[in-house]
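Board work, copied verbatim: Acyl carrier protein
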Amino acid sequence: MSHSTPDSVDLEELRSLMAVTFELPPEEVTDDAHFAADLGVDSLTALEITTRLEDRYGVVLSDDEFKTVTTLLSVRELVRRKLAAA
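↓ predict structure ↓
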């Protein structure tokens, strides 16, 4: 189990995690780049992101929750909310 807290969700760490998953350079994963429209993320990649976030932060994300996030900043806020509720 992770010992992550809402304050431990580092934006640059998330950016790196997303970049590896998307197979893109980190500088292309800007704070407000839309995952599908700007970065070409498909549903399979979204599932991989969910799994990586759950493993890294020790949270459980439902499909419906993850569908609400479309940018790096919204991912950080979702993970922070999940950690705060834990």
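The radius of gyration is 12 Å.
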